[in-house]
Amino acid sequence: MDTLQFQDVCVNIGENTILKDVSFSLGKGYIVALIGHNGAGKSTIMKTIMGWQEKRDGSISINSINQDESFLAYKKQIAYIPEEPFLLSELTAMQHFQLYGQSYGLDEQELMEKVEHLTKLFEINDKLNEYPESLSKGMRQKVQTICALLPEVALLLIDEPFMGLDIHAANDLERLIKNKANSGTSILLTSHQLERVEDLADKYLMLHKGELIEHGDMKSFEKLTRRTTE
Ligand SMILES: Nc1ncnc2c1ncn2[C@@H]1O[C@H](COP(=O)(O)OP(=O)(O)OP(=O)(O)O)[C@@H](O)[C@H]1O
């Protein structure tokens, strides 16, 4: 059974049709890249899966739990790293990790071990008591990324995972994403950094003006880009 089923989804914003009848599914443990030009609708797909963007039509389920029928049970299965860090100004980095740990039901010891490991890896272990306003943009992105990596969820959504991260952090994140997928998490990501995505993803979905125009194995996409750039 596929982890995510995104079926016949249409999204309108005002008068504009942003997603036109988009359907795809995501198998357990697969890494799938959403590819397309600026404005193609990639982030809208992410926000619609999260329930932040209303859909006009269609259905979305994760492990057969339908978004419209059991929203809380559905939502517990997702973690999201948005393109822009979305942190609360009144909470420190550590308080963000605790909030995420509690909302996904992690026990205290497991949470602390993961926080220690990930904050050391991303070199922000000396920033645990800082508030977002005193962190750089890249550090805020790291806090947001760690929050989403703490729980074991069925589906991890990542909008532009490498944006704002230095080369070491980007390499670490790439490795963590592969480990997550190997342990059964399905991953949907968007990225304009095609070289990294070609190395990371198993499959791609190509969007153009809100329509899914092509999909397949990442290997066939690599051939396609090579053919068109040679
Ligand atoms: N809040 C909004 N109000 C009006 N139009 C919106 C809104 N959010 C997105 N859109 C429109 O929806 C379309 C898809 O936007 P979306 O952010 O999903 O694109 P994207 O593929 O993620 O682009 P990018 O690569 O630039 O991040 C664009 O035409 C955009 O102008």
UniProtKB/TrEMBL annotation:
Annotated InterPro entries: AAA+_ATPase, ABC_transporter-like_ATP-bd, ABC_Transporter_VariousFunc, P-loop_NTPase
Entry keywords, A to Z: ATP-binding, Nucleotide-binding, Transport
Keyword Zinc-finger: no
MF terms (GO), sorted A to Z: ATP binding; ATP hydrolysis activity
UniProt domain ABC transporter: residue ranges: 4-228
Origin: domain of life: Bacteria
Pfam families tied to this protein: ABC_tran
Signal peptide positions (record): none
Chain ranges passing through the membrane: none
Protein name, per record: ABC-2 type transport system ATP-binding protein
Lineage of origin: Bacteria, Bacillati, Bacillota, Bacilli, Bacillales
